[in-house]
Specification:
The complex is a heterotrimer.
Chain A (H helix, E strand, L loop, with lengths): L8 H15 L25 H15 L6 H7 L3 H12 L2
Helix pairs in contact in A: 1-4
Chain B lengths: L1 E9 L2 E2 L1 H10 L5 E4 L7 E4 L21 H17 L3 H4 L3 E6 L4 H14 L6 H7 L3 H10 L5 E5 L4 H14 L5 E8 L3 H10 L24 E8 L8 E9 L10 E4 L12 H4 L4 E3 L2 H4 L6 H14 L1 E2 L18 E2 L4 E7 L5 E8 L1 H6 L1
Parallel strand pairs in B: 5-6, 5-7, 10-11, 10-14
Antiparallel strand pairs in B: 1-2, 1-8, 1-9, 3-4, 7-8, 9-15, 12-13, 14-15
Helix pairs in contact in B: 2-6, 4-5
Chain C lengths: L2 E10 L2 E2 L1 H10 L35 H16 L11 E6 L9 H10 L4 H8 L3 H9 L5 E4 L5 H15 L4 E8 L3 H9 L23 E8 L1 H6 L6 E10 L12 H14 L6 E6 L5 H15 L4 E4 L1 H4 L6 H15 L1 E2 L21 E2 L4 E7 L4 E9 L1
Parallel strand pairs in C: 3-4, 3-5, 8-9, 8-12
Antiparallel strand pairs in C: 1-2, 1-6, 1-7, 5-6, 7-13, 10-11, 12-13
Helix pairs in contact in C: 2-5, 6-12
Classes of the chains: A mainly alpha, B alpha/beta, C alpha/beta.
């Protein structure tokens, strides 16, 4: 099956990094400099609870994915890797 | 109480020195802002450019904040820096923010989300920023202020009520210092409403001394914050002797100078004439910063600067059909007291009475 | 501080007026349902004031203002004041959230698609500053201010009005808060993930969020002299007010409750009492994980495990700008009538909070009570109310 733009895991990671920087106003951060295993909260990117609910909206608008509750969200939002894996698993044909 | 520090963000930039330069320079033409929906129509506006609200250090904690909050944070931080007060004193300060319209531009962006993405697809960040006290919250977070915080919204005399409350908090010993200010923003919808409701100045000049039932306006936006303190602290700028609102002024003595809030946005301005005919020096600086219902705060900043520097700044627009004693030149002056006057269309008056730093007078 | 409370007016899903509200408190009747006053795709339960639609005369008046007028009318009547307050020096200080915004969706929809919008919503907004509108209706000629401090607006408005009275700026004040159910905050709170799909359970281990509500809670505050001059012997008093900020986050409370602690201390100091003098606390208790955890554990630290406290959100929902006003009113009424209701929705203690609200109607024995309000943006307010 031919990989389409945005469907491969590396493409999804790249897209997510860009979306996070733009939508969460991470002004000083270059998306390309975010590591693939970067932790999103705490000492990693330093995101907080308001960013978490904003990521829910990002997933909804850009990938058509719904997070049913934030406990599920906590695991998915752990790092770029877990987030990208979740998107990849739930959007690939 | 005393004014010990001032911070401003407005169409010409940021900082009290920048504000003073603008007062000295005088009137400059506003932008012609076209509407997003009707690009062939435009309105003169004194808007704040994005470059004036960039500050990587101060705004590090406010990456999500909208323009309204960023203007507020920068003006508040600059007022604190201007006052020289240390972090430990500021920690227990109070914050009072007054606004006429609040962060309406963000509210409309939130409505965009409802319409574009549905009730369950909206941005929580946009919603959080649309809540009126978000700006005060950002200020407290950036400056680590833990004292009482209050945001108030009025169309009439909001800045006056904020000053009155600041003085009450100080008298009640809730805090020794208060960051008190006003913020209002322009925006696409607000410009549309201004175009519908107001006579906009086709040549871009607000005329504060027309004293007419209808006067030309040029909408503006910006933020001003004052660091005010107990009476026995060193008075950096001046003393706020009294703040009154109501149908008559408490202090009937004519001051050295009246600064009039007339700006085309407050309705009938005929009520200013009786004060303008008093013989005091008359001026009004709305042509520099724009028409805002919270414009009193900017005029108060001008008054505080004049008392500190003992300079009078020329009226930026000098049309004087009633031949009042207008301030025509920027030059040194001996000014002891200034009243910043707001006269609303229903005859209500708001007056901020400023007094020169008396210690400085006696030390000469 | 010793300011007489001579009138109380309340309207919420729990009832119109004190009698209906007390009946609801006694019966623990459920007041939630689906939104009926505006269209939405969201199905979270809300606490709507029933049978409060506008007459043709009131069509141009915002719902929040009409709620405020209803409560202010009841309060003024109880205080022995008529509709025309012009013979007195009266201030009006009211808290709100939605009513202060220009957020009419119909107007904006039209503007967005055509570049023009109907003038009526704009005029309604420009004539609709809450405190200004109520002052005009009651011909109150003293100071008027609308406080927009999110969820502590009503309590902060009461504190501000008290400061006016103490300083002599007015002798009487209508003070409290009002807010309507509205699609904008409904969508907003939904997006924050803090609305519950079921009836809220303040302080309960299984709590899953708040329910929005609407209403108004307004007090008549005045100097003792003013009350006695009018032949009114005050029974209840506002004895203290405290306000402090968390300086932490735009939506989340400080995890250690630092602002709430400071606000409570300030209110107790204002009243000249200590924590042991407080008979009960009317807590903010919204039913969210964070608020209840912070508020509950802070109340435990200050007042100890034997504290009697409850949240009224299970009767009224979270009424946002009205909350602080309703909470103060309920606190005053509880002192006056001598009992506090069971905290609705609570069943199991949360070990992270380690304190439980009361679960049955409880008599009030002491003379002092505390009302607490925690707001978005980290503002915290506390009011001490007492029996004379």
């Amino acid at each position: 099956m031919e990989e389409q733009q945005g469907n491969s895991l590396p493409e999804i990671r790249k897209q997510l990094k860009k979306l996070l920087v733009e939508n969460l106003a991470l002004e000083d951060i270059n998306p390309e400099e975010i590591k693939d295993d970067e932790i999103l909260f705490g000492d990693g990117l330093g995101l907080d609870s308001l960013d978490a609910v904003e990521i829910v909206v990002i997933l909804q608008r850009n990938f058509g994915l719904e997070i049913q509750d934030m406990e599920q969200g906590q695991k998915i939002f752990y790092s770029i890797e877990t987030l990208a894996n979740y998107v990849y698993e739930n959007t690939r044909e | 109480m005393n004014i010990n520090g001032i911070g401003t963000v407005f169409t010409r930039g940021r900082g009290i020195e920048n504000f003073e330069e603008a007062l000295i320079e005088g009137w400059v033409p506003p932008f012609q802002q076209s509407y997003s929906m009707l690009p062939d129509k435009s309105l003169p506006v004194y808007r704040v450019n994005k470059e004036y609200i960039v500050d990587k250090k101060l705004l590090k904690k406010t990456r999500r904040a909208d323009k309204f909050s960023k203007m507020a944070v920068l003006a508040a931080c600059d007022a604190v820096a201007d006052s020289g007060l240390g972090a430990d004193e500021i920690e227990s300060a109070g914050i009072i923010l007054s606004t006429a319209f609040g962060p309406h531009a963000t509210t409309f962006r939130f409505l965009d989300d409802i319409m574009d993405y549905g009730d369950d697809g909206v941005s929580p960040t946009l919603f959080s920023n649309s809540v009126h006290n978000a700006a005060a919250s950002y200020i407290s977070s950036v400056l680590n202020i833990h004292g009482p915080t209050l945001t108030l919204t009025q169309f009439k005399s909001s800045f006056h009520q904020a000053l009155i409350l600041a003085e009450l908090w100080i008298k009640q010993k809730r805090c020794n210092n208060v960051l008190v200010g006003s913020v209002d923003e322009s925006g696409d919808v607000m410009q549309y409403i201004c175009a519908k409701k107001l006579e906009t100045a086709k040549d871009g000049k607000i005329r504060p001394f027309r004293f007419a039932p209808v006067s030309p306006a040029v909408p503006g936006e910006g933020a001003v914050f004052f660091l005010v303190s107990k009476q026995d602290r060193y008075k950096e700028y001046c003393t706020i002797l009294s703040v009154t609102t109501g149908s008559s002024l408490i202090n009937e003595t004519t001051p050295d100078m009246y600064i009039l809030d007339a700006n085309g946005m407050g309705g009938d301005e005929t009520g200013y004439l009786k004060f303008a005919s008093s013989g005091a020096i008359i001026t009004g600086y709305a042509p520099v910063f724009g028409s805002m219902l919270t414009g009193s705060a900017f005029n108060c900043a001008a008054g505080a600067l004049m008392l500190k520097k003992q300079i009078k700044y020329k009226s930026p627009v000098q049309d004087n059909p009633h031949s009042v004693n207008l301030c025509l030149k920027t030059e040194p002056a001996d000014i002891d007291d200034i009243i910043c006057l707001n006269n609303t269309c229903n005859g209500q008056t708001g007056a901020i009475s400023l007094l020169r730093n008396v210690d400085e007078l006696f030390s000469r | 501080m010793n300011i007489a409370i001579t009138g109380i007016g309340i309207i919420s899903a729990a009832g119109k007026g004190i009698n209906e509200t007390l009946a609801t408190f006694r019966s623990s009747a459920a007041n939630t349902g689906q939104v009926s006053i505006f269209h939405t795709d969201l199905s979270y339960p809300v606490f709507e004031v029933k049978n409060f639609s506008s007459s043709s005369l009131q069509k141009n008046s915002q719902r929040t203002i009409r709620l405020a007028m209803a409560a202010a009318g009841e309060a003024a009547a109880e205080a022995g004041l008529a509709d025309n307050l012009s013979p007195y020096r009266v201030g009006v200080c009211l808290g709100t959230t939605v009513a202060s915004q220009l957020n009419d969706i119909e107007f904006y929809q039209k503007y967005r698609s055509t570049g023009t919008g109907p003038p009526e919503p704009v005029n309604r907004y420009l004539n609709g500053n809450l405190a200004e509108a109520v002052a005009q209706k009651f011909k109150a000629n003293g100071p008027s201010v609308t406080v927009v401090n999110a969820c502590s607006s009503g309590a902060d408005a009461i504190g501000l009005a008290a400061a006016w009275i103490e300083s002599g700026l007015c002798d009487i004040a209508l003070a409290g808060g009002a807010d309507e159910l509205n699609r904008v905050p409904f969508c907003g709170f939904g997006s924050l993930g803090i609305l519950s799909d079921s009836v809220c359970k303040p302080f309960d281990r299984e709590r899953s969020g708040l329910n929005l509500g609407e209403g108004a809670g307004i007090l008549v505050l005045e100097t003792e002299d003013s009350a006695r001059d009018r032949g009114v012997e005050p029974l209840l008093f506002l004895s203290g007010y405290g306000s402090a900020g968390d300086a932490y986050h735009i939506t989340a409370p400080h995890p250690e409750g630092s602002g709430l602690k400071a606000a409570i201390k300030s209110a107790l100091d204002d009243a000249g009492i200590n924590s042991g003098d407080i008979d009960f606390v009317n807590a903010h208790g919204t039913g969210t994980k964070e608020n209840d955890k912070v508020e509950g554990s802070t109340l435990l630290k200050i007042f100890g495990p034997e504290l009697k406290f409850y949240s009224s959100k299970g009767f009224t929902g979270h009424t946002l700008g009205a909350a602080g006003g309703l909470e103060a009113a309920f606190t005053a009424i509880a002192l006056k009538y001598g009992w506090i209701p069971a905290s609705p929705g609570f069943q199991s203690i949360d070990n992270q909070i380690a304190i439980s609200p009361i679960t049955k109607i409880t008599p009030v024995k002491g003379n002092f009570a505390l009302s607490t309000s925690l707001a978005f943006g980290g503002t915290n307010a506390a009011l001490v109310i007492s029996l004379g």
